[in-house]
Amino acid sequence: MILAALVMVMFTTGAATAQSFVGAPSANFVLDLDTKDGASSSWRVDDLSGLNALEARVTFLRKGKHKKWAPGFSISLGDEEVQARLHVTAFPDTDILFFRTEILGTDSKQEPEMFFLPPKFGEEFELHIDWSPEGNVTFIVSSKAAEELGGYERHEVQLGRAPSMLKVSGSTGEVMFNPIKLGRINDAVTK
Asked: Which CATH class is domain 2-189?
Protein backbone atom coordinates (compact mmCIF):
# COMPACT_ATOMS: atom_id res chain seq x y z
CA MET A 1 0.00 0.00 0.00
CA ILE A 2 2.84 2.40 0.87
CA LEU A 3 4.61 1.54 -2.39
CA ALA A 4 1.41 2.25 -4.36
CA ALA A 5 1.12 5.65 -2.68
CA LEU A 6 4.78 6.39 -3.42
CA VAL A 7 4.34 5.46 -7.08
CA MET A 8 1.19 7.61 -7.36
CA VAL A 9 3.08 10.62 -5.99
CA MET A 10 5.88 10.05 -8.50
CA PHE A 11 3.45 10.10 -11.42
CA THR A 12 1.44 13.12 -10.31
CA THR A 13 2.35 16.25 -12.17
CA GLY A 14 0.86 19.72 -12.04
CA ALA A 15 -1.44 20.43 -14.97
CA ALA A 16 -0.39 24.08 -15.14
CA THR A 17 1.57 23.76 -18.38
CA ALA A 18 1.42 21.67 -21.52
CA GLN A 19 4.59 21.07 -23.48
CA SER A 20 4.88 20.87 -27.23
CA PHE A 21 8.02 19.43 -28.85
CA VAL A 22 9.29 21.12 -32.04
CA GLY A 23 12.11 19.28 -33.82
CA ALA A 24 15.12 21.28 -34.98
CA PRO A 25 15.97 21.24 -38.70
CA SER A 26 18.45 18.48 -39.61
CA ALA A 27 18.33 17.06 -36.07
CA ASN A 28 16.38 13.84 -36.69
CA PHE A 29 18.55 10.71 -36.63
CA VAL A 30 18.43 6.91 -36.57
CA LEU A 31 21.08 5.66 -34.18
CA ASP A 32 21.93 1.96 -33.94
CA LEU A 33 24.53 1.35 -31.24
CA ASP A 34 25.44 -2.26 -32.05
CA THR A 35 28.48 -2.83 -29.86
CA LYS A 36 30.47 -6.05 -29.57
CA ASP A 37 30.72 -7.71 -26.19
CA GLY A 38 33.12 -5.95 -23.83
CA ALA A 39 33.46 -2.89 -26.08
CA SER A 40 31.75 0.50 -26.01
CA SER A 41 30.53 2.93 -28.63
CA SER A 42 29.17 6.46 -28.44
CA TRP A 43 27.52 9.27 -30.36
CA ARG A 44 27.99 12.87 -29.29
CA VAL A 45 26.56 16.32 -29.97
CA ASP A 46 28.95 19.03 -28.78
CA ASP A 47 26.71 22.09 -29.22
CA LEU A 48 23.20 22.24 -27.77
CA SER A 49 22.74 25.96 -28.49
CA GLY A 50 19.09 26.75 -29.17
CA LEU A 51 17.98 23.27 -28.07
CA ASN A 52 16.31 22.18 -24.85
CA ALA A 53 14.76 18.77 -25.57
CA LEU A 54 15.26 15.31 -27.01
CA GLU A 55 12.65 12.75 -28.03
CA ALA A 56 13.42 9.17 -29.00
CA ARG A 57 11.81 5.82 -29.64
CA VAL A 58 14.18 3.27 -28.11
CA THR A 59 14.49 -0.53 -28.24
CA PHE A 60 17.12 -2.60 -26.49
CA LEU A 61 17.60 -5.28 -29.19
CA ARG A 62 20.50 -7.47 -28.09
CA LYS A 63 22.19 -8.37 -24.82
CA GLY A 64 25.77 -9.52 -25.17
CA LYS A 65 27.77 -11.44 -22.59
CA HIS A 66 31.02 -10.36 -21.01
CA LYS A 67 32.64 -11.28 -17.70
CA LYS A 68 33.27 -7.63 -16.76
CA TRP A 69 30.77 -5.43 -18.64
CA ALA A 70 26.98 -5.79 -18.48
CA PRO A 71 24.92 -4.85 -21.52
CA GLY A 72 23.74 -1.27 -21.18
CA PHE A 73 23.44 2.22 -22.55
CA SER A 74 23.40 5.74 -21.18
CA ILE A 75 22.41 9.24 -22.20
CA SER A 76 24.38 12.07 -20.58
CA LEU A 77 23.84 15.82 -20.75
CA GLY A 78 26.24 18.37 -19.32
CA ASP A 79 29.79 19.46 -20.00
CA GLU A 80 33.27 18.05 -19.40
CA GLU A 81 32.96 18.57 -15.62
CA VAL A 82 29.41 17.53 -14.68
CA GLN A 83 26.69 15.44 -16.33
CA ALA A 84 23.10 14.38 -15.68
CA ARG A 85 22.75 10.77 -16.84
CA LEU A 86 20.12 8.17 -17.53
CA HIS A 87 21.74 4.73 -17.38
CA VAL A 88 20.04 1.49 -18.46
CA THR A 89 21.40 -1.99 -17.71
CA ALA A 90 20.04 -5.27 -19.11
CA PHE A 91 20.25 -8.22 -16.75
CA PRO A 92 21.28 -11.57 -18.24
CA ASP A 93 18.69 -14.35 -18.53
CA THR A 94 15.74 -12.04 -17.78
CA ASP A 95 13.71 -9.34 -19.52
CA ILE A 96 14.29 -6.86 -16.68
CA LEU A 97 15.92 -3.52 -17.54
CA PHE A 98 17.38 -1.47 -14.69
CA PHE A 99 16.91 2.31 -15.20
CA ARG A 100 18.51 4.96 -13.00
CA THR A 101 19.18 8.69 -13.16
CA GLU A 102 22.22 10.25 -11.53
CA ILE A 103 24.59 13.18 -11.53
CA LEU A 104 28.27 12.59 -12.31
CA GLY A 105 31.39 14.66 -11.69
CA THR A 106 30.28 16.69 -8.70
CA ASP A 107 29.99 16.40 -4.96
CA SER A 108 26.21 16.78 -5.23
CA LYS A 109 24.14 15.27 -2.44
CA GLN A 110 21.51 14.18 -4.97
CA GLU A 111 21.22 10.40 -4.81
CA PRO A 112 20.71 8.22 -7.90
CA GLU A 113 17.04 7.40 -8.49
CA MET A 114 15.72 4.09 -9.79
CA PHE A 115 12.68 3.72 -12.03
CA PHE A 116 9.91 1.56 -10.51
CA LEU A 117 8.08 0.75 -13.76
CA PRO A 118 10.69 0.43 -16.53
CA PRO A 119 10.13 -1.08 -19.98
CA LYS A 120 11.15 -4.70 -20.51
CA PHE A 121 13.97 -5.93 -22.73
CA GLY A 122 12.88 -5.83 -26.39
CA GLU A 123 9.96 -3.45 -25.68
CA GLU A 124 9.95 -0.26 -27.72
CA PHE A 125 9.57 2.76 -25.43
CA GLU A 126 9.36 6.52 -25.71
CA LEU A 127 12.03 8.68 -24.09
CA HIS A 128 11.69 12.41 -23.56
CA ILE A 129 14.44 14.56 -22.04
CA ASP A 130 14.26 18.31 -21.53
CA TRP A 131 16.51 20.79 -19.77
CA SER A 132 16.33 24.37 -18.54
CA PRO A 133 18.90 27.18 -18.62
CA GLU A 134 19.31 26.60 -14.85
CA GLY A 135 20.27 22.98 -15.45
CA ASN A 136 17.11 21.14 -14.40
CA VAL A 137 17.22 17.98 -16.55
CA THR A 138 14.01 15.93 -16.75
CA PHE A 139 13.97 12.30 -17.95
CA ILE A 140 10.56 10.84 -18.89
CA VAL A 141 10.24 7.16 -19.85
CA SER A 142 6.92 5.87 -21.21
CA SER A 143 6.37 2.13 -20.82
CA LYS A 144 3.65 -0.50 -20.87
CA ALA A 145 4.31 -1.15 -17.17
CA ALA A 146 3.35 2.46 -16.36
CA GLU A 147 0.17 2.58 -18.50
CA GLU A 148 -2.19 2.36 -15.52
CA LEU A 149 -0.48 5.35 -13.91
CA GLY A 150 -0.51 7.77 -16.81
CA GLY A 151 1.88 5.82 -19.01
CA TYR A 152 5.17 7.32 -17.91
CA GLU A 153 7.67 7.76 -15.11
CA ARG A 154 9.49 11.06 -14.59
CA HIS A 155 12.78 11.85 -12.81
CA GLU A 156 14.65 15.13 -12.50
CA VAL A 157 18.37 15.76 -11.98
CA GLN A 158 19.67 19.15 -10.81
CA LEU A 159 22.73 19.83 -12.96
CA GLY A 160 23.23 23.42 -11.76
CA ARG A 161 23.84 24.90 -15.22
CA ALA A 162 22.60 24.46 -18.77
CA PRO A 163 24.10 21.45 -20.54
CA SER A 164 26.30 22.16 -23.53
CA MET A 165 26.75 18.61 -24.86
CA LEU A 166 24.88 15.33 -25.25
CA LYS A 167 26.44 11.86 -25.31
CA VAL A 168 24.77 8.52 -26.02
CA SER A 169 26.89 5.47 -25.15
CA GLY A 170 26.38 1.72 -25.39
CA SER A 171 28.25 -1.39 -24.36
CA THR A 172 27.98 -5.17 -24.85
CA GLY A 173 24.72 -5.11 -26.80
CA GLU A 174 22.55 -3.35 -29.36
CA VAL A 175 20.25 -0.41 -28.72
CA MET A 176 18.21 1.23 -31.50
CA PHE A 177 17.05 4.86 -31.37
CA ASN A 178 14.60 5.16 -34.26
CA PRO A 179 14.31 8.08 -34.37
CA ILE A 180 16.22 10.28 -31.96
CA LYS A 181 15.22 13.93 -32.40
CA LEU A 182 16.68 17.10 -30.96
CA GLY A 183 14.60 20.25 -30.66
CA ARG A 184 12.78 22.57 -28.30
CA ILE A 185 9.79 22.35 -26.06
CA ASN A 186 7.45 25.27 -25.87
CA ASP A 187 5.35 25.69 -22.73
CA ALA A 188 1.71 26.69 -23.09
CA VAL A 189 -0.26 27.69 -20.00
CA THR A 190 -3.39 25.57 -19.51
CA LYS A 191 -6.24 25.68 -17.05
From this structure: mainly beta
